[in-house]
Amino acid sequence: MPAQLFLHQLQLGPMQNFVYLVGTEGQRDVVVVDPAWEVDAIEKTCTLHGKRLCGIVLTHSHRDHTNGVGELLGSRDLPVYVQRSEVDFSDDLKAFTGALRPLGPGDPVPLGGVTAKVIHTPGHTPGSQCLYAADALLSGDTLFVNGCGRCDLRGGDPGQMYGTLYQTLRRLPGATRLFPGHDYGDVQVSSLDREASRNPYFQFKDSASFVAYRMRPRT
Fold this sequence. Notes:
Strand order of the largest sheet: 1-2-3-4-5-6
Radius of gyration: 16 Å
CATH class: Alpha Beta
Order of helices and strands: EEEHEHHEHEEEEEEHEEHH
CATH architecture: 4-Layer Sandwich
Shape: globular
Strand content: 25-35%
Oligomer: single chain
Largest sheet: 6 strands, mixed
Helix content: 10-25%
């Protein structure tokens, strides 16, 4: 019988961030995805579920997704899994150089008995990545419920975001559960099929119209 995914979602901090603990049911080790804001809450949740941190996965390098990494590394020797192109992009990651484990597209992440890999999803930053484990996609700031990541910050590229959404994520099974990096939608967990039908950023016929909409002036 295939191993079952353990996935726990926490909403932490002032920006409605989601932090995730991911592992295998029946095994102690879990990775934490995008640890930020309230490290004590992350640690208490691990204890409550009888879990032990064995690694950190970063979907990208923005501070609201990484500001708990230093505190965790101060008390533990943990690998930090990040997309190789994000290491080249981000000066902030240099503080964790000794712990970084740069990954390429499709590289595996150790999660016990559950198959997990990273998917390179540029657009929000050059090295944005999603964690794809079993039937779950942890999308960071790439894809939200009814939205997608900003492309007007340093390193953002709306053309790449179009390719990520339409040529990469839409090719995954529609039943894939979506776990975003922020609580910006009407539900906290969605699916790719639901987003394909409701998310305005999935309704364009070509890259040019998507880019014009994504880069319209913010109000």
